[in-house]
Records
---
Amino acid sequence: MTTPAKIPATSCRDAPILKERGQREVFCGLTGIIWLHRKMQDAFFLVIGSRTCAHLLQSAAGVMIFAEPRFGTAILEESDLAGMADAHEELDREVARLLSRRPDIKQLFLVGSCPSEVIKLDLARAAERLTQVHAPHVRVLNYSGSGIETTFTQGEDACLASMVPVLPATEARELLLVGALPDVVEDQAVSLLTQMGIGPIRVLPAPRTSQTPGVGPNTVFACLQPFLGDTAAALTRRGARMIPAPFPFGEEGTTLWLRAIADEFGVDDATFERVTEAPRARARTAIANASKALHGKTIFFMPDSQLEIPLARFLTRECGMEAIEIGQPYIHKALVAPDLDLIPTGPVISEGQDVDKQLDRVRAARPDLTVCGLGLANPLEAEGLTTKWAIELVFTPVHFYEQAGDLAGLFSRPIRRRALLKLEAAE
Amino acid sequence: MKLTVWTYEGPPHVGAMRVATAMKGLHYVLHAPQGDTYADLLFTMIERRNHRPPVSYTTFEGRDLGEDTAGIFKKTCQDAYDRFKPQAIIVGASCTAELIQDDPGGLAETMQIPVPVIPLELPSYQRKENFGSDETFYQIVRALAGPVARTPEVTVNILGPIALGFRHRDDIEEIKGLLYEMGIGVNVVAPFDATPEDITRLGAAHANVVMYPEHAETAARHLEKTFGQPFTKTVPIGVGATHDFVAEVALLCGVEPRTDLSRLRQPWWSRSVDSTYLTGKRVFVFGDATHVIAAARIARDEMGFEVVGLGCYNREFARPIRALAKAFGVSALVTDDYLEVEKAIEDAAPEMILGTQMERHIGKRLGIPCAVISAPVHVQDFPARYSPQMGWEGANVIFDTWIHPLVMGLEEHLLAMFREDFEFHDEAGPSHHGGHAPKPVEGGQPPAAAQPPRSFSAKMNEGAVAGSAQSHEQTGSDVMVWLSDAERELKKIPFFVRGKARRNTEIYATERGLSEISVDTLYEAKAHYAR
């Protein structure tokens, strides 16, 4: 490694975790459809759920995406709840109608919801049956995005994991990048790795079904997001091997992530240096500019996107912030351990949520910046606390070198804005 | 099972949240899984509320299902009482909790909670948001409002304004002003800013003003039956409706119908010659029933528009909407299917839409200007400025709001005169809207009309039409051939009337059994339909 990361003497890896249960102020896994349906261009997401599910999808997007929605909700009605055979027939009918209207759809996801799970509607069986009906043109898969099983970004994990068992088998030595990132960011990652001579590189999810990657004993994979635990496990079951690394946020995170892959593929230091030198320097400059307002400031993460631990690592180590509490909906140690290793002990690491108790801690600590969901942001601002909406971190390109400055900017903007506004009388 | 892409209304528990969030000192304990908390952001983001909705969610998980979800409910209920000390609590279930049948009302009853606990039964798989708000307010009133002495002076309650309503905040002020001018006092405004303690005093008023029947009609009927309080049936949106409202209130309360018209500018703005261009503009009206009924009357009687289609998404009000449509000589569209509404608007080819945020998007897609008249709402529908819909100022506001999306009178003529000017052409849109930069045009020709995107919804519509009996409306260009001269001539007609011209010409040709449309057909049809 060209510049060994400074590993703190005592890190958060073994810090005790505060586990909480109670009211959770987070989205359910259905929300992932908002970005997944843009990423997979020949896929349709059909939620089998209630009016609440449809309303969530519409509201969570913040803006309604009226152009070409490749998702919809089959709303369960009173009659569907009466008998199971009925619901399956109804579903077959709705799917047939949908597919005849959308001949461009090659992949259909039946997405389970809280009500479909409570009434034990067997969507796996439905997907199998419908695959037979609509093969070879359309493949039907199923996963759960329900709130009783998944939180927010976990929906993407469930979706990708559902695709793994049907990936074609391959013996090829390939690198698989796992996670749905904006195209511009994905292209940057592929370009950096290709310049080091690493390849072939495949991506899950593929933008089109025809580009579906294979998987096998010679596949190595790297996760792009810290919430893909089930997908990683499913790939491992198919014989693939994970390359553990901190996640590619910031200059340091990106370098360590690339370095881990480069080591796997035997890339020498000189090549690594040549490829990464210029973008690293750019990233450092951009972070230095964007993080001025962050130095010495405290930050509190409410559990939301599952990106909290890697982002805390970036903000504390590269932007000079001090973390008070780092909350995640759930902590998947196998994935985030390399990031926890780099965070010195100090902050409270919490898992789960009892929102009122956590808000008591926020009010007691009065952090300079609180990262939270949209339901909490304005109420906290009204109490004089500066906030950053977590959902923006999932919708904005923030990974890798060229976005490192933007990522710091997302956190500094609310602080700069508070300093900018003069809304009182001049004295 | 019904495939839905976009919804006009959320589930009924969101209606209950709108009542709870509007009130003070009330708490809602909602048996619901993780994820249902998304509804909080409707209030904190869209309405910019500076506090969390007063709702505690039980947040049960999959692993709790075989175990003690009832215990989780009771703990949440107790914690909510201990922490927030509300004057009253409403309890209920969201769609998922309804299925596990824990009976939140029954559970709460067994607890020693020292304030009134009001159970809500909101069937999630049958009813929707507006039912939820109406039913919740009714249950609160039924549980809390008891017999009290009438106020010595004449007072009324103002009922119906809730959270996330379309301009409810400002409408309250207009109503208070109208009542003040008649010397009528306000006993309680509810649910907006009312406490459970205020609700107990409802019986002291002499009558009730129902601002929005969607949210308060059942409560008003209950109060009429229980305390003999009559309630108003006129919703004072528009000049005529506000006059009617003043007369109705005066009659109910036995006072003189006094009102101060000095602030009302709408009638002169509408009569003044600049507004001549509004005459006969074809509008399509869609939204909640209350706002549609008001908007249709304003459109026809106070703006001089022609209403070419109208409808509502809340089926509870299908009957008055059908009656209204009959009176306007159009057929009523009662549906909550966004795609059906889009199809109806496309077919009617109006020059303007008066609708919700959903129709605003339809308008954007079809290139038709739209003014918003009703919920469901968007962050833009909560302006910082005072912007009521009701009363005299509401009439002024509506005039301004509705003409804003339109191309103004003289500009309309100029567009027709210089139809091939490369900068000043109809595709550029109204010149007072910054967003429409003139598109570059090659060879001095006006650009081709923007094709309405053949999107998912259009395909779905085609599917739907193909599936049903193909008896009517085969007037599309699929069966009619436009000769190229006629097609070119049609493109010279400004975009805001082009749809109407195309449609009229095709109807004219069909009626005469023509299969081809020439320039002559176009102008014959124009003469035929000339007013």
---
Amino acid sequence: MDEVGKVVRDYITREYLQEGDDREITETTPLISGGIVDSFSMVSLLRFLEKKYSIHIPAEAATPQAFDTVQSIEALVHRFQRTEVSV
Amino acid sequence: MAFTNTVRNCYQTTIEEIKAAGLFKEERYIHSPQSSEIEVEFPVGSTIKKCINICANNYLGLSSHPAVIAAAHAGLDSRGYGMSSVRFICGTQDIHRELENRLTAFLGTEDTLLFPSCMDANAGFFEACLGEQDVMIADRLVHASIIDGMRLCKAMQDTYKHSDMGHLEEKLQEHQDKRLRLVITDGVFSMDGDTARLADIVALAEKYNAMVFLDDSHATGFIGRTGRGTHEHWGVLGRIDVITTTLGKALGGASGGCVSGRRELVEMCRQRARPYLFSNSVAPVIVAGALKVLDLISTSTERRDKLEWNTKYWRGLLKDAGFDIKEGDTPIVPVMLYDAKLAQDFARDLFDQGVYAVGFFFPVVPKGQARIRTQLSAAHEKRHLDFAIEAFRKVGQKHGILGLGKKELLARCAA
């Protein structure tokens, strides 16, 4: 897990786990299919990533699959960081 | 495109997937009026069975109340069967406006607009009242109809952890740059039976200049000292900007819902809410029945008080028997089983014992949170609850879960 992954993991723990929920979020913990993040509240994660990394993630890329693990979110952020740079 | 075998197969595959996932829903045919004792045909074609019903939203037991039925008959005779129109063409009778005024007085708001259902009220409100410059901040456990309504609206969506006031405050701070802020919550959450911390929500909304939206469908008629709802319970009558609620639960249980609140918000719905604009008026017979319901509950708290007694009694029975229940004081009492299959088996066994209750599991509730949701009614007599607890005890013994706490039940599921 790189720096982006750690930031994402910390945000998810803070934003989505209820008080007293001591589940550990790892790189591969299923977030959406595992019921930690639902597709409805995924919006705040998307907004957080866009603001934090100054990127724009288009709706077609913000799929439940792309947001399902810290690993996949990490990859998504890197992909759009590169896009921003190349533009 | 014709409905070819390829198309048919496509749907059949999906239906099979739903079945394989254990999510296939089947209706049970009831051959009697809605009540605490009902006659059920299940599975289809089997002998009709008498059951104690412990899963209806018939909180005040008014679904088949003689006075409501008589008023509905009278309404049918005097105002006819249907309106064959939406409200704003030729679908508004005097009694529609009378019911809106009576609901306004009962809920302590400024104005009310009837909708075909509360689902429609929730589907229509947000798009009608908010735009791109605004933000909606919802509790994460709000009802599915609110989520659908929010998705139809262009305002920014955000959510806060269930009943977490610190998290809500963070969100309100974060969105101070928006034109309008709307905090959205259920009054009583339908799956857990807990009550929103409405006094805290209102205080935060006032501090951060936000409006409050309350879906009080599982509260109107019986929560609060005189049954006005969650806002009465928390002492914030008149401080909620918009309340949506239903006639389909405590208030007679037929159908219909409303948006009730600030005059301008209600007017925006009358002008712009699509489910209001493009669907038929609530049928006159239902309006007449609902007016009688309001007569009954405005003049006496007897039914609400009986429901409160039944709730306490039932919660006590379940705890004494060794069940793990969600704490609270509302008539929604979830019996926690955690495991989806166990919840399904448990409901089936209860039915065999003459008790009609339903198992809920993912995606209706979070994974690992399967349960039997029991719901009390003022139509329940003590003997109904005594009968039901015996059935619960027998089935609990059969599955070896009596006296087990959450950890033991979870361990049992994992085994």
---
Amino acid sequence: MILLRTPKTLTWCAVLLLTGVALWGWTVDPARPGRWLFIALFVPALWGYVEFAQGGERRRERAAIMDWHRIVFAWTGLVMASRVGVELAVATDWLDPVWGPIAQRARWIITGVSLAVWGNFLPKLLSPWLPGDEPFDWSRVHRFVGWLFSVAGVAVVGVWLVVPQPDQARLLSRVIFGTVAVLTVGRKLMSLASPPERHAPQTRRRPNLIVSDGPTR
Amino acid sequence: MNRVFKALSDPTRRRVLQLLRERPMTAGELADEFALTKATMSGHFNVLREAGLVDADRRRTTITYRLQMSVLEDALLGFAESFGFELRLGAHTPLPDRIAKREA
């Protein structure tokens, strides 16, 4: 329970787990150092970037966004580690090869569910910028991306439940993820191009009902 | 979830959510869109806030409301809009004693 209350601890655990899996992979297959380095550094690099790059003036919103990112990174690390872990366990005869495809299917279904859940809650994140300071239309972009992730997550789950051939299912999943990535980046770029003034609440100028035509007597 | 259903069951609150989809708005701006008293509007805002559908940001005397709906809640709003479901005190629900006495 303490771990669940501290997303930063969870992310550190995921980073350590990935480092361990990468080291294990390096001992099993030392001919591919690039792959093991990528596995060890992918989550820490993304995490570091987000910790330093996240802008905004509102502390409460910033803290919520950072916690959300940390949980997503921890989850990503866990999924990556499970994937590589099963692969290495099969390669070193720790696990029967029959479990490989079952683990793969289960992992993709869990990934799809996670994407749908992530998408569902994405629009709940509030902008950390003050009205008028937002570099892009935070609310609309997050609502669009939230819907996109939710639909894509359900689609990925459907693909891995219905398509019998793992190769075809993997190809379809990659197409779905690629489309999601292109649409997400495209929507954000579109929003960055729009003027930020229109995101702020419009302060109404109240009509001055007292017409003064000289100093008050 | 009950709070969400309760919040979405009223057409005024649904209209408030639709307005907030466009951009964050102050309480005054929102109140100008309806022919309702400030007290009634304040009650609607409280229901929406308790359901976690909007966030209220107070700065000095101004309260700015921002939409805070998940995809599922957004879909429920769309569903409620399409079918126009409303929570009515009708034949199936007994009226609270105070209202029943007044009507008698």
---
Amino acid sequence: MSNTQVESGYADKAGKGIHNQHNRRVIGDVLSYILLTVLGIIWLLPIVWVFLESFNQNSSSYQRTFFPTQYTFNNYKQLFTETNVMNFGSMFLRTFIIACFVCVISVAFVLFVAYCMSRMRFRFRKPFMNIVLVLGMFPSIMAVVAVYFILKAMNLTSGNWTVVALILVYSAGTGAGFYMMKGYMDTIPNSLDEAAMLDGCTRWQVFYKIILPICRPMIVYQAITGFLAPWLDFVMAKAICRTQDQYTVALGLWQMLQKEYISQWYARFAAGAVVVSIPIAILFMVMQRFYQESMSGSVKG
Amino acid sequence: MATTSKHVEAKKRKTKKVGADYVAPAPWTVKHAFQKGDVFTRLSCVIFGLSNLARKQIIKGILFLAIEILYIIYMVNTGALALDKLFTHLQGTKSEQRFSASGIPLAPAPEEYSVTILLYGVAALFITAAFVWFWTVNMRAAYKAQYLKETTGHAPSFLDDVMDLKDGRAYVSMLFLPTLGILIFTILPLLFMISMAFTSYDSAHPSHFDWVGFANFKEVVSNDGGTVNGQLFLSVLLWTLIWAFFATFLNYFLGMFLAMVINRKTTRGKMFWRGVFSMSIAVPQFVSLLVMNTMLQPTGAVNRLLQSWGWISGPLPFFTNATWARVTVIVINLWVGIPFTIMQVTGILQNIPADLYEAAELDGANWWQQFCNITMPYMIFVTTPYLITTFTGNVNNFNVIYLLSGGDPTPVGASAGKTDLLITWLYKLTVDKGDYNSGAVIGIFTFIVLAVVALLTYRSSGSYKNEEGFR
């Protein structure tokens, strides 16, 4: 409420009536709440639908009604217990392991590269940024087949080695995605670094003592994207994992929608989608609070 | 703001050649190593690390020498052969029945596939290029050791070098692994694929192919009536650009608008609203896309719902009519993309110095004026690189198109559908049909288009010219 008082004070100075300002604010509030509600429903509807579908007793893909009519918990049970056709549990575990590694590696890589590009000046810097920019313009799908051949030459495509292969594939190139982080670091005042270096910090110390804490919101973003990559990608996984005991969840779920499975697996597909979304959603809520933290007050005076 | 831009312009004119972050070359260059180097330094061009060893940089010298020896061993064992095959025997060998001198059949010689030869050949070229670069590193290090020995009396010890990696040259230690990853898993595969564009590696020659020069490029550009022709290429290219434009800017501005509505001082439950919109991120993209694909089919949930309400008589042609399909993918991409935009933009919006707004409010600026004169310049400044990467990302947006519409509607006999982007076309050609060469050519053309668009915009953007403008 203190905000309102301060602002109505400004309004006075600007020569406007408090009343007028107040009315406009209320109208703005109402409009924005209506907008947010309508859009929120649009955004949530498909998710709610998937959620309800996962409890659908009628497991085929063709439904008479938009929302299911009879509910059961059976789909989840079947998903994890009937492992002879598709072992969803092990797919889930495999993807989770990959995601954890990729998350950590990609955050480290992006922070390293962004810090170097934002804070340090060296001869290879501009060429590096230009090369990365140029590389980003090559369609990534183009490399899928080639990456498979390279991994095969490294003997990483048989058995459980595909886990290592996928970790490598998903995290190796993440350093190229530093632009957003660099843009953020560019907004951090240089005087912070200078002050720390006057106090005897090395560049590495400036990095993890000064820059890292300030970049937390962006790190959250990077961690989420890094963690999501293995869950979302299926093109790369499809090229690398050739047998079903190597599949990640993305491939498993995709498989359930193929012609030979869809008639029996549609509800279990929805259940699988819900199960996959849960760790991501939890992670997201835990990390959500970092968004609030703003930069104001990092440099005083 | 006005003063800043004036300042920028003045700076631009003055420092056209030598920018603010210009780094003067160190005195130890390869050229100087040969001009001013002593015997040890010059001999280092043959025996790596010799100069370092002579200046008592034992560990460094041994490391240089070890890498040279490793390279020589590699070349003698496999590298030279791989290079030779790459240029002269790309065809490989077919498996032939062999007989011993007395006529007893032997196990057939292992078949050598052209793809393997191509991969090992390209890798050998790649390693050689890396080695040449390493040679320049070696020469510079050699002269550096000599130079420092002469000027300061002693060359830095290994410990000094390690300490330097933590401070002055921290960029070397920090960039090493990310760069290595990019080299092996981005650049090497790309070179490999590009080399395929010059071969006859297609569905007719799946295991044994040869170099064909620019024939594939000609096929894609000309109108000879093949499944891959110039007319189809142009129409796919045009749709790709339209798609990328709408997908990028609609997402950006609508997402930013929503983020600002949520960020309003008087909007309550900011966390709740952000949570609502980020829910869709938690659902894997391909799940929601596949679900929407089934929902929007002629017999899907949406059509049945609308029909049961009596709003429409026949099913809406979501993926069967070209225009409908194109609008549908753009709209659904909004659903997919806006939460990501909100997520990224929120942090930056909160980063805008609050005093700018306070000052503007004191001067009587209204909401729109604040938006145009504070928010937009700041956002554009910070996010231009992001916008460009999003644009290129959308040109290469495989998931949305492939999973949602699959490129449909596809005219009979055409190799690309009406919503196919260059990238999905490439995928269909390579993975589905095995025409790796035309796929690679399309990939190269995609790259050229993107490079022209992106480099032009990026080079003229504020955040490239003046990285410290908002500090």
